[in-house]
Here is the input.
Amino acid sequence: MVIDKKGQIHFKNRQAERFLDMYKEKLNIKDPVLNILNKIMQKKFKIKINDYEYILKVSKFEKEERIKYAVEIYDSKYIYDLTAQIKFEEVKTILDSTQDAICIDDEYGNTLWINKACEELYQVNRLDIIGTSIDLLEKEGIFNPSVAKLVFEQKRKMTILHSNKNGKKILTTGTPLFTDDGKIDKVISTSRDVTELMILKNKLEDIENELEEVKEQQESHDNLIVKSQKMKEVMKLARRLSQIDTTVLITGESGVGKGEIAKYIHKLGKGEDKPFVKVNCGAIPDSLIESELFGYEGGAFTGSRKKGKKGLFEMAQNGTIFLDEIGELPLHLQVKILQAIQDKEIQRVGGTSTVKVNVRIIAATNRELKEMVEKGQFREDLYYRLNVVPIYIPPLRDRKEDIYPIIRYFLTLYNDKFDLQKRIDPNAIDYLIRYSWPGNVRELENIIERLVVTTREQSIVKDNLPNYILKEIEKEENYSIISVPNMGSLKDTVEEVEKQIIHKALKKYKTTREVAKALGVSQPTVVRKINKYYISYDEVNRVN
Here is the structure.
């Protein structure tokens, strides 16, 4: 309606007329228009009738040289609902424009709404997600683990670091909204893709590690990639032994690099110009192994050469003979090996005289020779003659710091060999580092060669890895729950997560070396992070 300063009505529609009648009857007012005018003058724009509240929307204007007021009257409930609807539409537009993935769940754990960034990050369709329970979404691996589910369980803000279906690293925070009686009304989850940040962080770590490697004079000799402290100790021992002409026994699991260490000792001791003869004692038939090792005289047996033949010991003259898998050597030949070590001489098959040999013997095995001695399967005197200064090479799973440099080495090797330029995604590297590697370096080399040859795309991703590797890691996957009290900038949040990861690792592993091994970084890096975040050992012990 339109009224002037005196309360005279210049216009009113039917709804206004009905309202004035109700107003006059309910409040027993003689002239409701004057009452409304009075409220306008006092700048009170609300009228209450019984339990209902009405809102006045007033526009002042001048017409025919007189001040007039256009008064619109609304039911406040209608205004609230309309305003809320308009505001939510505006909010949805705003939320769809942000780069953070946002998901809203109701008090029952059903998805109310997700924004466009959430659709893109988790590769889902909004219509398929809305109305679906968090249990089902977690079971289907869309939000796995579901931070909203953790919020409902813990009744507090929760932050987790996890991966989506494509292996992207995602930092997700779930924030509960409570009702007046303390119940969770809604959960707002925000997710950020931190993959690029992790890559940049890893690159920075690589640069720092390279600087450390320069300072520490990291060892790298031919095919030997050495970064872990355990392998550095192996290399130190190998260097010392290379300068002493004594028999060496190298032990360790199959594929750890026993042959490469043998070559390294030979090269430093005898030199590249001297022969290095490798013998796989388990690959030669028992009927031939004696003649292969020690040679034979002419006519020694049917089919033998008339002039006879030199054995492998004679071919290694002034150099090194490497007896790999010596635990497979038959007992009757072990005494002849012992004679070659002690007397520096051998006797050919069918011969009557001995041949002097100046040969260094390096033996290797993946078997427990001590147990074989106790069972009568290996000569005790030969065992103790070989085991004067043993070298044990730890398996790859116990020196995870070496895995990434070895991956880079073989990736470069096979890229050059096949004229390719393949790269390995950080998530794939993460899986390779966490795998147990029962076949050790040999298995790792075979995997990298296979990936370089068979992967069609330029980038080797997690899904390109063999199924048995994926299954092992996924079986042991255990997402650590990390609480971030106040979500700040992405840099601050990631640093808070990193701090808590190191704190948890210290509680579990006690020493920085064990922490470094578990996290796949160097020990100086762990020490640097502890100092950076002011983590005290006393604090860790108190928590325990």
